[in-house]
Amino acid sequence: MSERHPLDEAIALEPAAGSPDLFHGRTHEDYANMVGPFGGLTAAVQLSAVLRHPALLGEPLAVTVNFAGPVTDGDYTIRAVPVRTNRSSQHWIVEQRQGDALVTSATVVTAVRRASFDSTETLPPQAVPPEDLARRDGPVPLPWLSRYDLRFVSGGLAPSGDPAGESATVLWARDDPPRPLDPCSLLALSDAFFPRVFLRTGALAPAGTVSVTTYLHGGEEERARVGDDFVLGRAVGQRFAGGYFDQAAQLWSRTGALLATSHQIVYFKA
Amino acid sequence: MSERHPLDEAIALEPAAGSPDLFHGRTHEDYANMVGPFGGLTAAVQLSAVLRHPALLGEPLAVTVNFAGPVTDGDYTIRAVPVRTNRSSQHWIVEQRQGDALVTSATVVTAVRRASFDSTETLPPQAVPPEDLARRDGPVPLPWLSRYDLRFVSGGLAPSGDPAGESATVLWARDDPPRPLDPCSLLALSDAFFPRVFLRTGALAPAGTVSVTTYLHGGEEERARVGDDFVLGRAVGQRFAGGYFDQAAQLWSRTGALLATSHQIVYFKA
To answer: Can you give A193-235 as a three-state secondary structure string?
Structure first.
């Protein structure tokens, strides 16, 4: 009698007739952003197509998603093509279309992981546990923000609107309702930071991710140990110039394992 | 009477008959690696195709290159398709083939930059000037290493073979012979760090980049001010697990402008 989690509803795809590469999907109101879906959800949908493909080898290692144009509420198709399959890795090109318009492109690398030297070198920042922090809403009310329990350790938006000297945010994050961590939810979570330019200028401004690349580390067993617990995230802008800034982000388990590293380039007007 | 720089020879492409998207090229002995070309050169070749395309809009902003299979010495074709053109940005999918085999895939975002809030937030590490350091060869003699003047500030390979507690390298780098910095040379330079796992384990080991994403900041005028001077690079591994590690890298001008941020995921055996 358990209902499906809203994230699973939102990344659901139907195989299309005629080709194993083609899927049909539809935007979901729970993950709506200002215009179209939350970018992290759009990223997760591209990966979802790869993970449903009958020819899949291994598990997700690297995902790059390019937001080519606005996704509008409604139907879309996704084509996920395994362009090269090696012994222990596979390369994918993914294209999301609405009508004739390409709205998103992505490349995915999947791989079979094996035991190796294992070390988290970039350690998590000091943070009080999420239980000691209040849940916070985002800077503006948006449907997708209700699907995440975000608790800011540092670098929340200053109510005074003061520009900050640096753009770092540290926060605890998990799905709402809680959901066991998997590659799709981790990918979406890695895009849950608000635009860094808000912190640096102290003001909301038009901003949107152009391209994001996320590397998933540690594999399925490590994610299983996280379960539906909070993950600790840190994001910082490295350079702002010419109408674009980049953001480097990390997501750790509560026990300090680095689960994902993510980087994005963001359009802004300020 | 000036000869062409070896990098320009190595990224040269001939438009193919029949489609503006198709180009012919050939590997160049000066940039040979252990097997096939230096990965940074392969990345630059994908971008070179986009920059030669008659429909190009703007300048490079984000480049993701997936090394799907080994590039063997000899001929290749590149197909660079502008999959979406917006008012001030353009999205590309690039595929490099040898015979029928896809060897490299890439996505590129080009954009028209405009004046905005401008700040380098991630500052360069302390470093003595390159003139005070001796040029160093790589850990093994390879043709492409002769095409770069690399001077290590810290994090060179320890001759003792001792594992290091961290994988950070800081170095000065420029083309040899010196060449004015442009998007293709900057992209290649961002892959000029040796595998981080060598530092962490203190030993050479099989390793190869699987996917690299580089964001170019600051634009053409800023690169023109760099000219053919050294750039300062820093690279660090964040997580090693399951036979893969990631590397986060930055490249600054001598005056401290962050020119590029780059991230890659690397296969290794250790």
So the answer is: CCCHHHHHHCCCCCEEEEEEEEEECCHHHHHHHHCCCCEEEEE
